[in-house]
Amino acid sequence: xxxxxxxxxxxxxxxxxxxxxxxxxxxxxxxxxxxxxxxxxxxxxxxxxxxxxxxxxxxxxxxxxxxxxxxxxxxxxxxxxxxxxxxxxxxxxxxxxxxxxxxxxxxxxxxxxxxxxxxxxxxxxxxxxxxxxxxxxxxxxxxxxxxxxxxxxxxxxxxxxxxxxxxxxxxxxxxxxxxxxxxxxxxxxxxxxxxxxxxxxxxxxxxxxxxxxxxxxxxxxxxxxxxxxxxxxxxxxxxxxxxxxxxxxxxxxxxxxxxxxxxxxxxxxxxxxxxxxxxxxxxxxxxxxxxxxxxxxxxxxxxxxxxxxxxxxxxxxxxxxxxxxxxxxxxxxxxxxxxxxx
Length: 342
Hints:
This protein is an alpha+beta fold. The chain is 29% helix and 18% strand. The protein folds into two domains: 21-205 and 309-341, no CATH class; 213-304, no CATH class. The strands form five sheets. It has a three-stranded mixed β-sheet. Strands 5-4-14 form a three-stranded antiparallel β-sheet. A hairpin with a 5-residue loop joins strand 8 (243-248) and strand 9. The longest helix is centred in the N-terminal third of the chain and has 22 residues, at 86-107.
């Protein structure tokens, strides 16, 4: 799943410019873009998908030029299991395609500080990209004829389709593994409020692998990890009485947590302890050497559900919706509020 930093503000509402179809679909300008149903569509910023995209290989420290739709298929196969439902894979392909297009739109032939030579890289800093040969090599025999063929077909079915909100290309089509039942408002996890990244229910996640996971630490281990993660903070005395969850987000994740004399965000605690999600509860119990008096011999138990940051589309939720009969457009419109697919 890709990591991103939401540093955008909600745009001031502008008057909608109705673009006639003859202007939007000028001869030779849309290439692979699916133009079905565009009559009467209002675009403020219609984009054109390029033939290729530059991808930065973080390990090799070099760029490669890749066919754009081939890149989309490889990202989709890298980010979502091929045994997920076809409609979930179609939804994933559009999220991946939109993310890549938003970076091209933002950086052009350049890129961010981490890889200025290309708009996207091949790691979770952007979205994971493994070339076709590598994908085939890391899967079991037969995956090429079954899983890879399935992913390529799903991507072909959505070729050229992108997410738009209020007539503009969506620039933060975030996704993650599983939510634990509810996604998050973007401002509760990252920096800014984004109108299409709001908390929604995600009820069909019965098959997710991250449910009620327990992470058990001795109080000594807990203190060591927390202090190592935040060496600049003076926590004072850390004991069971001074460790508590103060507030929760709209999606149920830990918003703020008191640890000693310091208040941390739930996302900070998750990162420091390597938890799968910030959707966690805490409890204390006697450790193996507990003698009834020493806090250091007690254990703290983090019970978490879900995997990932929780903002945008839950991949397991998308698979669950697809198995319930929802198509890829319904899935995308559920997880990205108010968007349209063109």
